[in-house]
Design a protein that fits this description.
The chain is an alpha+beta fold. It folds into four domains: 66 residues, no CATH class; 252 residues, no CATH class; 122 residues, Sandwich (Immunoglobulin-like); 32 residues, no CATH class. It is 29% helix and 25% strand. The protein contains 15 helices and 25 strands. The chain has a seven-stranded mixed sheet, sandwiched between helices. A five-stranded mixed sheet has the order 14-22-21-17-18. The protein has a four-stranded antiparallel sheet with strand order 15-16-20-19. Strand 21 and strand 22 form a beta hairpin. Helix 5 packs across helix 7. The longest helix is centred in the first third of the chain and has 21 residues. The model has no long low-confidence stretch (mean pLDDT 87).
């Protein structure tokens, strides 16, 4: 009898081990709701040699593809969340009363690992330059940050995540800088806090459709664009929403929740071969709409996209990072540019700032020279190959919170000083980046100089001669083409914009006979 019990136990254990493996022949797991790419079956040989990591890679493949993986993950998640009130997924936090939260928002919620004052200043500075660039192209600019769910509905966060390190969050610091820099901004945090009902999904990281309509109205009201507010559109509820966190945690056993649906037909159509609003690039057209919008968005923009497309004659929606603002503006000439970024990801605006054409400035005071360990890198931009990308980090001696960074470029007797975007990473908050169109270079060699400003004093801290022809062959082609065009080139119009940013300075928008548009500070 005792041996029979041992035999049954051994058989059950053996079956539990062999079924997932044997089942891979007929029922492998080839899909996942987790935010990762499944491992591929490894090759025995790699580059003509024996793959020494074959067994390790085979183990990773089995871990991702064993039979009934999704079912077993769901069972484990149900036990851990229901019994122990914890999550078996690194990306999901199990809250109270059926609420789920995205784990990448925990630091924001607790006020931990906040960005430095300089990094926050970098973000605001970059937004200010973006606004200036967009306005110089004759378009309106608007920035907004989508609140983390626990920033609005934190009362259902688990008890072990209630001890906050501080009350000041990154978005609080950024909003102060946004106001100081007069950046066109919609505060969604205050907007949602004023609402009496919950407008985020319990088992998803995003707002529901009512929340999306609230944001849509706020954005278009701020822009002064006429639109349907949806106040008189019938709305009903359906319990068929499977949220992102829901599916991450319970890939098989996820249960739907309520969401709102507006009874109004869309009047736009897709110009792109769009599979879903998750697509990275989407174009829309609307014969009943007016104007055009270029919207840089993340997943919070999924529910905003059809609402916007029902207003504008032409819509261009991008999820690309860094945001290729210059490229798309030159291509589509939109009337409105909206930049939406989730609260948890605002640091990206300093880590990998959007692509905009560098704008020239005049420095009123003399520039002293003091060489330092500042870095200068000049290359053809991978983000937009029509541009040269100048980047680096300034010397530690000059790293002060209010330090401004410029790049002076001397080329074929011409000299321009550009404001740079400010960058931050794990190594330093005192990086810079500048995008200059290749067509602006008239020779195959140029001098790049880094200038810093602090308390009204300016110092040249690094100078470097760069052979542009080695970086891009387009430079030498442009040189020949531009020399021919320069002889025929004339100014068609010049529009002066006075004191556009409250600094006392303005800029001119110059249109040339060859169709090029330039803008210069005065």
């Amino acid at each position: 009898m005792r041996n029979t019990g041992k035999f049954i136990f051994t058989f059950v254990c053996f079956a539990m081990c062999i079924v997932p493996s044997a089942g891979m022949i007929t029922n492998p797991s080839n899909t996942t709701t987790e935010n990762k790419e499944l491992a591929k079956f490894p090759d025995i040989k790699e580059n003509g040699r024996l793959n020494t990591s074959f067994l390790q890679e085979l183990g990773n493949y089995f871990k991702d593809h064993f039979a009934f993986r999704q079912e077993l993950v769901s069972v484990d998640a149900e036990i851990q969340s229901k019994v122990f009130k914890v999550s078996n997924a690194d990306t999901v936090v199990v809250g109270n009363n059926g609420w789920l939260y995205y784990s990448s928002t925990v630091d924001d919620y607790l006020g931990k690992n906040t960005l430095s004052k300089r990094c926050i200043g970098n973000i605001a500075h970059n937004l200010s330059l973006i606004q200036k660039y967009v306005q110089s192209k004759g378009a309106k600019f608007l920035f907004t940050a989508a609140p983390n769910k626990n920033s609005l509905y934190g009362e259902n966060m688990p008890f072990y995540l209630q001890r906050k390190a501080g009350n000041i969050k990154n978005i609080d610091m950024l909003e102060k800088e946004i106001k100081k820099n007069d950046i066109s901004y919609v505060d969604l945090f205050t907007l949602f806090e004023k609402q009496d009902e919950e407008l985020y999904l319990k088992r998803d990281s995003h707002w529901n459709r009512k929340g999306a309509v609230l944001v849509y109205n706020a954005l278009l009201d701020k822009l002064g664009i006429e639109h349907d507010s949806y106040k008189h559109v019938d709305v009903f509820r359906l319990k068929e929403e499977y949220g992102d966190l829901n599916k991450m945690l319970y890939p098989v056993t996820a249960k739907p929740e309520w969401n709102y649906f507006y009874q109004k037909d869309d009047v736009f159509s897709y110009k792109t071969d769009t599979k879903s609003v998750e697509d990275a690039w989407i174009e829309t057209q609307n014969t009943k709409g007016t104007g055009s919008v270029l919207m840089f968005r993340d997943s919070f923009g999924n529910t905003l996209l059809p609402l916007m497309a029902n207003v504008f004659a032409n819509g261009y929606f991008s999820k690309g990072v860094p945001q290729n603002i210059a490229g798309y503006m030159n291509m589509y000439s939109p009337d409105v540019v909206i930049l939406e970024k989730a609260e948890r990801n605002i640091a990206e605006l300093a880590q990998d700032p959007p692509v905009i054409e560098g704008m020239t400035v005049k420095l009123d005071k003399d520039i002293q020279t003091e060489q330092s360990d500042t870095l200068i890198n000049v290359l053809e931009s991978k983000n937009n190959t029509d541009y040269l990308e100048v980047s680096g980090i300034i010397g530690t001696k000059f790293c002060k919170e209010d330090t401004s960074i410029y790049v002076r470029v001397s080329d074929n007797g011409q000299e321009n000083i550009y404001e740079t975007l400010y960058t931050a990473d794990a190594g330093s908050d005192y990086g810079y980046k500048l995008y200059i169109p290749k067509e602006k270079f008239y020779s195959t060699e140029a001098v790049f100089e880094v200038i810093v400003g602090n308390k009204g004093e300016f110092q040249l801290i690094k100078s470097e001669n760069v052979q542009l022809e080695k970086i891009s062959r387009d430079i030498s082609k442009n040189r020949i083409k531009q020399r021919k065009q320069a002889k025929k080139r004339k100014i068609i119009s010049e529009e002066k914009i006075y004191d556009c940013d409250g600094s006392g300075h303005g800029y001119s928008i110059i249109t040339w006979s060859d169709g090029k548009v330039e803008y210069k500070d005065f």
